[in-house]
């Protein structure tokens, strides 16, 4: 009873872990792209622009009435400079609020978690693929693609956690891509060998079937008292071959 309970608990925990891995890229949805303070502050931009336009229009309407050209020009420069300072202060606060919301070098936790989930998903399936490739009875070179997938995922894991200030140099991407191309080359070589082996195996199976279905009966290799069992077994073998074609 206790053993059954432990097995069920283990299965549930594995299921939860699998869900977290496979679905992790979806958990970013409830998170906010921008902070509340950032969005609130952003609303100040339009009033600042409207204020600047209103001041310029007001000065233009007073030109020739209460303002001379010289006075108008001085006030226009003054008001424009004040507006420029206000916009500069606005941008400074906006940039600070944006930076405060950043997470490990990304614009926000929402975007970081989305990227992390995609990389984690690829990492999981690459490892699963590699395990299956190792267990495979016939080598087909696919393990090199699995290794390439794992390598790329590790590259992006490092980028997500540690490359937070600056991106890699272009040369780094080139060298890494070159390494991946070598792995793909090994895969192509292994796949070609697999097809050659498969073709040889198919020829061997054909010869074996030819012997079982034609030569054995024609040359009377089967004893008379065993013929009934032989025919029955031959039919079963043919049915199995058709079902698994």
Briefly summarize what is shown.
The chain has 245 residues and is mostly helical. The chain contains 8 helices and no strands.
Furnish the topology, listing elements before pairings.
Layout (H helix, E strand, L loop, with lengths): L1 H21 L13 H7 L2 H18 L6 H32 L8 H27 L6 H20 L8 H49 L8 H17 L2
Helix pairs in contact: 2-4, 3-4, 5-6, 6-7
What this model shows, in words?
The chain has helices at residues 2-22, 36-42, 45-62, 69-100, 109-135, 142-161, 170-218, 227-243. The protein has 245 residues and is mostly helical. The protein folds into two domains: 2-110, no CATH class; 124-243. Helix 6 (142-161) runs antiparallel to helix 7. It is elongated, with a radius of gyration of 36 Å. The mean pLDDT is 82.
Helical/strand content category: mainly alpha
Straight-line distance between termini: 43 Å
- List low-pLDDT spans: none
Number of helices: 8
Rough outline: elongated
| Mean pLDDT over the residues | 82
In this structure, how is the largest beta sheet organized? Answer: none
